[in-house]
Amino acid sequence: MTSFDNWPWHYWAHHTPHSIALRTPAAQWSWRVLAQRINELAAAWQQAGVTAGCGVALRGKNRLELVLAYLAVLQCGARVIPLSPQLPPDLLARLLPGLNIDFGWCGAHFSWPDGITPLAISPSSVGSPARIPWQINRLATLTLTSGSSGLPKAAAHTFAAHLASAEGVLSLMNFQHRHSWLLSLPLCHVSGQGIVWRALAAGATLVVADDMPLEQALAGCSHASLVPTQLWRLLKGDMAGLSLQDVLLGGAMIPPDLTRQAEALGIRCWCGYGLTEFASTVCAKRADASPGVGMPLTGRELRLVDDEVWLRGGSIASGYWQQGRLIPFTDSDGWFHTRDRGRFVDGELHISGRLDNLFICGGEGIQPEDIERVLAIHPGVRQAFVVPVADEEFGQRPVAVVEGDTPFEQLRAWLDPQLAPWQRPAAYFTLPDTLGGGGIKISRRSIMDWVAAQFTINP
Question: Would you call 200 helix, strand, or coil by DSSP?
Fold first, then answer.
């Protein structure tokens, strides 16, 4: 792995100035041009008051302007927090004051809460930026976790953590300076940022093609990070002319038939296990028929304690940022207790589910991920979720929410013999577009709320 003595974009601008750093549908940017543009934007924002150590929120879709803003804030020495454009204003008003955010940039019209100064991307240079030295252990990013209740937490990562995350993935997958990775996941998710840091670590090309159909966005790309639904849709479309070599899958249960179809077309599929707190991927392997997620990548350690996954390693966040300080989340030996239930099978880690997803039906414990894994095997199921619904007789019963094209009666007849009586879903629903239409990961809490509403409407 490259040992940087300067900001990564300036390092590559010096060593491979004419290589393509960034590609959009309209243009290609060399490392030299990208470094110059970041200099200009950093200078403009320093003039606007962005200083080392302050907080800057970014809100927008995966477009060129967002990537430039992300890198420019880092070069200013500030903490950057990319936010989903879909976050409601009232949530931001409650969340941002506790994260010490001083400035905000948005790709479209948006009113920031009081106390946050809006920033604009200046079209022209205002001189050279003040030199902020590259320090690999400087706090760089805040990334919101997908907590199921209360306000999301903000995991705080250093540059060293992001590069350690990239190093682990690149030790497994062949991704070098001649390759290109599509920014196919939102930058507000740590997995989207992971794509950026892999490109920076390898001196490879980052491809930004927002608002384009996936088949067109992938033109000329060698690598992509996708959720299963995206790959299903890709395989059903026109793949002529695509140069896709490797896909890193995540975000949901991965049906074996999906990876078999992709591999048959020459697309190597990788699957794994990752967390926001660990700057994306922790374990990974070449996808196969086994539901395991491989073993820890370079620089990660794993142990099982009472069936709970504990992790530590170089990509771990420094803590949760709150009210101007870091709140530690590890024990005294540096282990993060994930609350994920796991076990080792045939030399690899299997994730059984979240300890806090377990619910009780008639006195029997149900781990919903166990039922989801069986559903994912069915060739007519693209993705499936199982959540509890209140029941007067049994306390709670499982309900299945499915994206697929198999009639529910057929699916029930296929599934029920493979489950214990208390595991059999009491009802089936089709995954609505409002839940499955965007983002990298569908919130289990949002599915539970939606299912509860269906039973309220149709008791």
Answer: helix
How many Å apart are CA 69 and CA 106, to the nearest integer? 10
Q: What are phi and psi of 60, to 5 degrees?
A: 175, 175
Range list of β-strands (E), 243-380: 246-249, 268-275, 280-286, 295-296, 300-305, 308-313, 319-322, 325-327, 336-345, 348-354, 359-361, 364-366
Q: Are strands 205-207 and 139-144 parallel, antiparallel or unpaired?
A: unpaired
**Can you tell me the distance from the alpha carbon of 205 to that of 185, in angstroms, rounded to the nearest whole number?**
16
* Other CB atoms within 10 A of residue 268 CB: 17
* Cα 275 from Cα 168, distance rounded (Å): 14
- The contacts of residue 241 (CB under 8 Å, 6+ apart) are 219
Distance separating alpha carbons of residues 204 and 246, to the nearest angstrom: 15
Gap between the Cα atoms of 33 and 13, Å rounded: 8
Asked if 282 contacts 342 with a C-beta cutoff of 8 angstroms, the reply is no
Convert the pLDDT of each residue in 6-51 to its tens digit.
999 999 999 999 999 999 999 999 999 999 999 999 999 999 999 9
Strands 103-106 vs 117-118: parallel, antiparallel or unpaired: parallel
pLDDT in tens, 51-84: 999 999 999 999 999 999 999 999 999 999 999 8
Give the integer Cα–Cα distance in Å for 271 and 369: 17
CB atoms within 10 A of CB 147: 12
Read off the pLDDT of residues 229-260 as tens digits, 9 standing for 90 and up: 889 889 988 888 889 999 999 866 788 889 99
Residues 6 or more apart in contact with residue 228 via CB below 8 angstroms? 249, 251, 252, 253, 254, 255, 258, 382, 383
pLDDT at 221 over 90: yes
Q: Report the alpha-carbon distance of residue 14 to residue 77 in Å, rounded.
A: 21
Q: What is the pLDDT of residue 125?
A: 56
Strands 79-83 and 103-106: unpaired
- C-alpha atoms less than 13 angstroms from C-alpha of 341 in its C-beta half-sphere: 12
As given in the structure block, the two tokens for residue 205 are 């090309």
Query: How does pLDDT run across 277-316, given as a tens digit for each residue?
Result: 999 999 999 999 888 999 999 999 999 999 999 999 999 9
